[in-house]
Amino acid sequence: MAPSLASTLALRSPSRRTPSRSSAGAAVEDKDTKYNPLAFLEGQGFATQEGFDARRRDNGYKTLRDFMDRGKYTVTQGADYFCGWTNPKGTPQPIPRSTGYTHDGPCEIWLDDVRVLERSPTIDYSSCEKKGGCTMHWYWLGVRFLKNSYSWQVYKECIPLTAAPKRLRM
Questions:
Q1: Where are the domains of the chain?
Q2: What are the boundaries of the region Disordered (predicted)?
């Protein structure tokens, strides 16, 4: 399962099993809007399948971020293509020190242009701490089997962070 950051992307509603956003980073406050994917790719000409890595490689994308930032798909009206429902100019948040889990799919976290999470649950925040703050870019391709086919659901967030870390909570 793909990890998310609990203090910023915590699971708030067990029945929904989708990431939530911090109020400070949200560009919208309506829960029904901000908890939804930015796009469902199966309805936009993508041959969705259980695994994403082979498709990513076969189509020349180096990372999940590369696919999500260069892929040809349309996001939900009102969402930002690069940052989803979050405001990258919002109030900076402390560096999160905990994780949570959501449904399956690849996940990446970048601090500015440094990838700090791909497959390992450990995140190195030193690049953000050294600069006194940064923007966390979170990418998640939720993969769900719905109605006898795979659904690829795009989630992205851009969250400004301060250099002050929170304590690790498990």
A1: 3-165
A2: 1-29
